[in-house]
Fold this sequence. Notes:
Layout: H1 4-7, E1 10-12, H2 14-21, E2 26-29, H3 32-37, H4 42-56, E3 60-67, E4 70-73, H5 77-85, E5 90-92, H6 97-103, E6 107-109, H7 111-121, E7 125-127, H8 138-141, H9 146-153, E8 157-160, H10 169-178, E9 183-185, E10 205-206, H11 210-222, E11 229-232, H12 243-259, H13 267-278, H14 282-307
Parallel strand pairs: 1-4, 2-3, 2-7, 5-6, 7-8, 8-11, 9-10, 9-11
Antiparallel strand pairs: 3-4, 3-6
Helix pairs in contact: 4-5, 4-14, 7-9, 11-14, 12-13
Bound molecules: pseudouridine-5'-monophosphate and manganese (II) ion.
Residues 30, 32-33, 37, 93, 110-111, 129-130, 132, 145-147, 164, 194, 265, 268, 272 line the site of pseudouridine-5'-monophosphate (PSU).
Amino acid sequence: MVTDLARSWLTFSPAVAAAKAAGRPLVALESTIIAHGMPYPENVRTAREVEALIRELGAEPATIALIGGRIRIGLSDDELELLGRSDQVHKVSRRDLPAVLANGGLGATTVAGTMICAALAGIEVFVTGGIGGVHRGAQETFDISADLQELARTSVAVVCAGAKSILDIGLTLEYLETHGVPVLSCEQDNFAAFYTRDSGYRADFRLDDAVEQARFIRTKWDLGLVGGVVVSTPVPAVAAMPDEEIDALTRQALDDAAVQGVTGKAVTPFLLARIKALTGGRSLATNIAIVKHNAEVGARLAIAMGSIE
Ligand code: PSU
Ligand code: MN
């Protein structure tokens, strides 16, 4: 249940407040992808282009971040620039939210962090790149992204291009099943693998149509089944990377992380940056194509959610 006290931490941008008041569809966007997922200036440019794309399709984008001790729902161009440029941005998951709000620092929200804030703001649909998951070797390290726990408990639909193969995708899907989080796939039967279209694992349900996806999600929540829904959509074929190349680079990046002793919340940003460097920047173009495509799927879903109420 969302209390007034919790909501008192939110500040809506004028555009998001107006859309909300008018009952127009809203799409939440995360900020870790801006601050920690992509380099400057491509990060800021992509964030702006993704927002514009969502607006063109008829929904209102709400990029979420922590600024000056407030949960900000919808950011100005200057604020996107600040998040994209600064090297003082905290990566904020569920654990980190109170710390960064209380000290008034700059915080970029992860999938988990953004889901919490979106739910407080009454936003049902959230677009990201890839979700966190169970890391390879988690049997030893216990490194399981807090994104998965959040999907289990917070009722927001998360549109993504699956999960990166830096993770153990099979175990990630097992974990989601255990926690009752449905994984929908659109455009194909299998769960996507971010840089490549096919993870080799079937998603739970294939629903290509936004209205069908919306009905599924609405039914889950109507029944009081608290928690998120994953909507996976593959990278457009023209932008996908070759499987063998990604496999080799992923192994290399994982070896580098082990050699350098990277742990905790630094693991995922390290692996993303390493893969980007190893591809000579080509993975960045794929990453951008993915987020834009996800934004289209998410905007259509947000509109469909509004149309079936
Ligand atoms: N996976 C990606 N790109 C990303 C992330 C994950 O392909 O930018 C970010 C998201 O913000 C995600 C977070 O929520 O990393 C997961 O971090 P961790 O594995 O530390 O939970
Ligand atoms: Mn982790």
